[in-house]
Structures are given as C-alpha cells and as structure tokens.
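1st attempt posting a full record on here, be nice pls
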Amino acid sequence: MDVILLSDQRHLGQRGDVKKVRPGYARNFLIPQGLALVATPGNRKYFEEQRSKIDARHMRERGVAAEVAEQLSALKISISKKVGETDTLYGSVTASEIAEAIEGKGFTVDRRKIDLDGGIKTLGDHTVRVDLHSEVIAEVTVSVVPDQS
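the predicted structure (as tokens):
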C-alpha cells in the first residue's frame, strides 16, 4: 500500500514522501495516528494544496522544540539505583525512569523519544539523547548514583 507521509518518520522517510508500506502498518498505525494518508490521486492533490500549512506548522513545532532543547541541554538529572558490593548496578536505568526524572524538573518528554544507545548499566555521568522533533535533538546529562537506603 502506498502512503503519503504527513510528518517525518525516523525509519520510514521525510514528510511528503510517497512510501510503500504493509497494509496493516498503514491501516493500524500510520493513518489513525495522522502520520500518513493513502496515496490516492485526490489525496496527493490535497497534500500539495496543504503543504504550505503543514510546512508552517512544522516550522513552529521545530522552533518550540529548539527552545525546549536548549533548556534540556542545561539540565542534569540524578537517578539513584541499587548497587552491589563492586559498584555494579542491579538492572539498568530505563527510559521511563529518565522521563519521570525529567518530568520532576518541569518538562514533559515521551519515554519513546529517549535514546539510551545500549542502556545505562554503570554508575557515573551519561549523555542521553532526547528526540524532541525530527530535526531537533537535545542531550541530557544523567548522573547515576548509588542508592543510600
């Protein structure tokens, strides 16, 4: 099934691209989420007419995301985890824990937008990427410290 992407998708393509995807992926995810339209001649014409509005909305969203990225980049988050006798973590730091810590600082970030790049399994400072927009990425410093309880 051919679809027109209405927004940039990390693993699929850029806004405005016509991509061939599996019908279930299009029907069950892309179209209901408002991320794509079925690539019919009428929808192609509609997309071209609406492109300027979509581009303006995209630029506004990017501007807001850039402002939030500046504030997040200055942020340092501390997460305490249980450690063993040799200072190794029991488990690892998850994206949900990082999202909760960021919310504690006053920002709302979806846990799926946090890129842990293999996970955090050691104590110390780690740089974590947060994809706020398809063109804006913030880097947050996460400090993992031993739990004192």
